[in-house]
């Protein structure tokens, strides 16, 4: 089964800091710069890679809390519930969490975290290996939040255009929800 919508967006890792915001549907140029979180990147050889970025007019701490408070993702992304951390304490390398996009059971493992700056995690699901990065950069007027994700595997290769479209839409939706929720909770618009 090919993943669709928001469920697809949460398979992977976190994005890097110093990257310009890009449209989620940007074509992958051959000389592309990839995001990095403490040495972790997406799978640069994956047939599907997507990126989405947004300026969030809210404090960095608000954005970071929403992003890393997995047990409360349901408050702003109800389609991926239940979502829960399976390791105690803050997110750190080796932490894991379970969530259910599209009624699938996914167990993601955190690869790296740089508090208030970036996260990266990965998960295999239904033959797809995803790596998902998020980065957060304080800028004038708020926080530049960027996400980048790669998908590899037989299901992806069987429908690259469909997989690309699905991941593009999912990442764009995820980032818009993060923006809307952070701005509403902080009273900034």
TrEMBL record:
InterPro entries found in the cross-reference section? Polyketide_cyclase/dehydratase, START-like_dom_sf
Q: Name one Pfam family in it.
A: Polyketide_cyc2
- Know the name of this protein? Polyketide cyclase/dehydrase
Q: Which species is listed as the source?
A: Streptomyces violaceusniger (strain Tu 4113)
Phylogenetic classification of the source organism: Bacteria, Bacillati, Actinomycetota, Actinomycetes, Kitasatosporales
